[in-house]
Amino acid sequence: MNETLTVPIGEQEHLKEFFRALNENGQKQEAADFSSLVAQLGQMEKQYAAVLSELKTVQGQLDRIQDKGIRAAVKKSVAAIQSKVEQAKDQLSHIKADLSQSVKLALSAARQQGISALQKAVDFMGLKAALNDMQGSLHTSISHTQKSIDRINAVGSELHALNEHTKNLGRVLTGKEARELTARNEDKGVLAAVAKPLKQSKSIMEGMEKGVTRALQSVGRLEQAAAKGREEKPSVGKCPRCGSPVHEGKKNYYCSNKECAFVMWKNDRFFEERKTAFSAKIAAALLKSGKANVKKLYSPKTGKTYDGTIVLADTGGKYVNYRIEVQKN
Prior knowledge:
Elements: H1 3-6, H2 13-24, H3 28-61, H4 68-113, H5 117-120, H6 124-173, H7 190-230, E1 237-238, E2 245-248, E3 252-255, E4 263-265, H8 269-273, H9 280-289, E5 291-298, E6 305-313, E7 321-326
Antiparallel strand pairs: 1-2, 2-3, 3-4, 5-6, 6-7
Helix pairs in contact: 2-3, 2-4, 3-4, 3-7, 4-6, 6-7
């Protein structure tokens, strides 16, 4: 069975792994935004259940309305609201499934291409569009619910006024003085019992709408971070310390992981003494196999050139070391 349908989104293991990977890669803000997004989606799962429960309560109260016309009108309104809520709930299910699948692909890409592939593989654009659609459904549901509440209150006020006028008519006919009309108590009576869960549903959906707004803000920041990652230069190779991509800068080859200190300087004395340009080709070979075959290395001792193998001798410290293996004929 699909994990996204049976396991709450906040408890799915691959989402937890994605969060940990972002944190371990120094992407603290992205991890916080992702955590916030997952929390909002998880909260909405519970809120939809609460709204549908309140609407079920409304349906249970409808039989208490004696007027068939009023009962039919309210029943129709509640059915329309329920339909919109169910639609938004389905949208949430699709969002959860898409996010879950996208994260799985991102983790798979990270294993093959390095840790920086994490965000780039997540389809935040598709997620943003789906959240916008869900927000639209919620807004419509809130509007329909408020109209139903207003309609019930209007009918209640009319019935209350009619009842008050009927009482006054009876007083006048019996020679008594008419009383001043009283205001209707919207918290009492059959119609109030119907309106109450509708008001609670509306309040929950308003909270959900704000939650979607917060989720969209998180997605927006994650989308920007992913776009920035896609704009980065092609990697020269993988960092021997943390596995993240190594990019070429103007003066060096540096690890893309901000918390990793690995860097190879182009003007390293090792290369300058041997009058060898520290090219991207040499850097790529060192990162791939730890060795690079180089021709015409200069020897400060003999003043002659020779062919040799430069070996990456990284000890994990602040500076990267190298040594030479002379090629034997």
